[in-house]
Design a protein that fits this description.
Length: about 425
């Protein structure tokens, strides 16, 4: 099947352009918020590893817990309305960070973070479930790559601008920008017609089921479908190492290299996130040509496994280098490799899912991954009292690489699903 190019999809699909524009703007604000909120927590807590760990947990665990519920919700109700309402609510909540002035106010930062990412689970669930309907099968690879590459490109741009704004203008400006970005995103989603975000049920009246029954249906599908379960297990294994990345960037950039090389802590952390975002974006942007090659050679299985292993090894080696710029390079290469892998993997996964259940499965997968991610982020922050950031970096890379081994075990010849691209 021919896949649309990036330019063909963007030029010929106004609804997808609106969704992409909304994500672009809101993700820019999100990364302003992340750098500013992390810096604010570091400042008022006197650089406490535990305070940073709690902040990461507040970002990750609510998303993880709410994802299965959010997925069921967006499969039952209007995906467009869910995105608009959650954006409007996040506009208000984002301004709560302006109230944090001293250590006694840290609970406000944690609560606002929990609420933002709880609502984010519903927005992402609706967006991810709606995207294949907006792109069509021919545009799914390009749409997946554009949505995720934009997300991570904004990690780079938003981190860089957020670090600069926090250092030069203060944290308050970043929080205001974040709030405004959600409002603009709501407007761009409002421009998308309701019937464009969900498949019409042709000649079939869907049986009315309870919310719990729909939730259970998604869980059962994830366990019984071999390919869906493979993706679920593999992403959870990846997150055992990936969860440490937040702490690695914070402690290496914001503390270790800030002390040994004289970096501004916010700027150093922003550099690492910027390199990560640019690397993932580059990887996803070459995924289209990579997929064409894989289609012609049938090497999807080996490509996914080996790229997962390679990205983890490169990141682990980065833990041995002596300077921020060298670590940034290894970090960039590692993220570029996993970027192209993820675009190919996610396209295979989305194509394998029926529309009526897509929201539940995709958010369950993301929620399970974020659960492990959050647990490991907190565990990693506690480990900082006993090991060096470099040791954590090496362990993170090795654990992430093991996801490739799991892929080879689960998807060995004879057991592959027809879900391949």
């Amino acid at each position: 099947m021919r896949s649309l190019s990036y330019s063909e999809l963007i030029r010929g699909n106004r609804d997808f352009r609106n969704l992409l524009a909304g994500q672009f703007i809101s993700e820019l604000g999100n990364w302003f918020n992340f750098i500013a909120a992390l810096g604010l927590v570091r400042l008022v807590s006197d650089a406490s590893p535990l305070a940073a760990g709690l902040f990461f947990v507040a970002r990750l665990i609510p998303f993880a817990i709410m994802s299965p519920i959010a997925g069921t919700f967006v499969d039952r109700f209007s995906r467009r309305k869910v995105m608009i309402v959650t954006d409007v609510l996040r506009t208000v909540i984002a301004l709560a960070f302006l109230l944090v002035k001293d250590p006694g106010d840290l609970w406000i930062a944690y609560l606002a973070t929990v609420l933002l990412h709880t609502l984010g689970a519903f927005f992402d669930g609706a967006k991810n479930a709606a995207a294949p309907n907006l792109t069509g099968r021919e545009g799914l690879l390009a749409g997946t790559a554009l949505l995720f590459s934009t997300k991570f490109l904004l990690m780079a741009i938003g981190s860089a601008l957020g670090g600069w704004a926090s250092a030069a203008l203060g944290y308050q400006i970043a929080f205001i920008i974040n709030a405004a970005s959600f409002l603009i995103s709501a407007y761009t989603v409002w421009l998308i017609p309701e019937d464009a975000v969900k498949e019409a049920e042709e000649g079939e009246v869907r049986e009315k089921r309870s919310f719990i029954s729909d939730l259970k249906e998604g869980l059962v599908y994830s366990v019984r479908n071999h390919f869906a379960l493979t993706i679920l297990i593999m992403n959870m294994i990846w997150a055992t190492g990936g969860g440490a990345i937040n702490v690695v960037y914070e402690r290496l950039g914001g503390v270790y290299f800030a002390e040994t090389e004289g970096w501004n802590p916010d700027a150093a952390v922003a550099i690492l996130w910027t390199a990560s975002g640019i690397g993932i974006t580059l990887g996803m942007m070459i995924a289209h040509r990579t997929s064409i090659y894989l289609d012609s050679t049938g090497k999807h299985r080996s490509f996914i496994g080996w790229t997962l292993i390679a990205h983890g090894i490169v990141f682990a080696v980065g833990g041995l280098v002596p300077t921020l710029w060298l670590f940034t390079l290894f970090n960039f290469v590692s993220r570029a490799v996993v970027g192209v892998e993820y675009a190919v993997q996610e396209t295979m996964f989305q194509r394998s899912l029926p529309d009526k259940i897509r929201g539940r499965i995709s958010t369950l997968d993301r929620g399970a991954e974020m659960t492990v991610f959050g647990i490991m982020a907190y565990a990693s922050s506690e480990l900082m009292y006993y090991i060096t950031p470099q040791t954590l970096t090496i362990a993170s890379g090795i654990l992430s690489a093991f996801a490739g081994v799991v892929w080879f075990i689960r998807e060995r010849p004879g057991r592959r699903e027809e879900a391949a691209v």
